[in-house]
Amino acid sequence: MAPSGSRSIKRSCKRVLHWIPVLFISIIVAWSYYAYVVQLCIESVENLGEKIVYLLAYHLFFIMFVWAYWQTIFTEPMHPLKEFHLSYSDKELLERVDRGESQQEILRRIVRQDLPVYTRTMSGAIRFCDRCILVKPDRCHHCSVCDKCILKMDHHCPWVNNCVGFSNYKFFMLFLAYSLLYCLFITATDLQYFIKFWLAGGKAHERLKEYLSGLPDTQAKFHIMFLFFAASMFSVSLAALFAYHCWLVCKNRSTLEAVRAPAFRHGPDKNGFSLGLSKNVRQVFGDEKTYWPIPVFSSLGDGCSFPTCLVNQDPEQPSTPPVQSPPNKSVGEPPQFPAKPLRESQSRLLNSGESWRESKGPGDRERTGTPNPALTIENEL
Known about the structure:
mainly alpha
C-alpha cells in the first residue's frame, strides 16, 4: 500500500507542477489586460476617439487570443483507434515469442490484415508501442509526459500543459498567430507613451516634470514602460516560433518529423507526407477558408491515416479502386471515426489534382503522387 500511495502522491504533485507554466501565462495576460485597458487607455490616453479605437481593437485580439489558447489547452489529444490495439490472443502470442523477427512477423501479419500503416522504424520494422500495446498509426508517437500515444504528435508543450497533435494543432497555430498580433498591437500603440517615459528617465532632475507632464502618475508610468518591454520581447520569440510552424505546415511536417524524417519501406523521406502547399495547408485548416481564423475544429482526416506523395505503393498493402469522396463534414465538431481506420475524406486532397512541383535546386522536377492505398480501400459493411 505504501509504494502505491507514494506513486499516487508523486503523480498528483507532477500534475500540479505541470500547470505552473499555464498559470504564469495566465497571470501575465491578466496583468497586461489591466495595464493596457486601465492604466493606458482609461488613465493615460486623453483623445476619446483614439481611446475607443484602442479598446475595440484590443478586445478583438484579446478574445481571439484567449479563445485559441483555451482550445489548445483543453482539447483532448486523440489516441489510436481500437483497431490498432492488439487483441487478447495477439498479445498472448506476442508475449510467447522472442523479441526480434518473430514478433515482427506477427506484427506484419496484423498490419497486412486491416491496418493502413506505411511508416516504419529506421531499421524497417513495424512501429509498435510496448507501453500502450498497439501498432502505431502513421505519424503517431508516444508522449512520455502524457504516457499515451498521440495521433500526429507534434510536441508536448509545457505552456499549454498538453500534447499538440492532430486534434489541436490548428488551435495551436491560431494561438501563436493571435498571441503575436496581441503583442504587436500592444507594442505599437504603447510605443509613444513608452518613448515619452524613457526619454524622461535620462534627463536632469529639473527637466523631469516637463517630460512627464503628459502622464498622470507614477503607477501608470511603470505599467506603460514594463508593458512595452514585455510585449516587445514576447513578439520576437512568438514571431520566430510562428514562422517556424508556418514552415512546418507548408511542408506538411510535424516538429518530430522535422528533427527525424519519417521512414517508409524504401527508407526515410522527409517529404513523404507533403502534397503541395495548398493541400498541406488545407489538411491542417480544412477546406472552408471561412473557418481558418476561427478556433473550431476543421482539419481534414481522422489522424490515423494520411495521404502520401509516394510513387511506389507498399506491396504489403492491398490496392483497390478509389472510393467516392463523402460530403464535407460539419466544421467545429470533433471528428467521427469510422469503424475501420480508413479515411475517405482525405482522398479529397488528392482527387483535386494528382501533380505538384517541388523545387530541387536551380530546376524543378515534376512528380506525380499516388494516394495512400489505405485511402482507396472501400469500407466493408
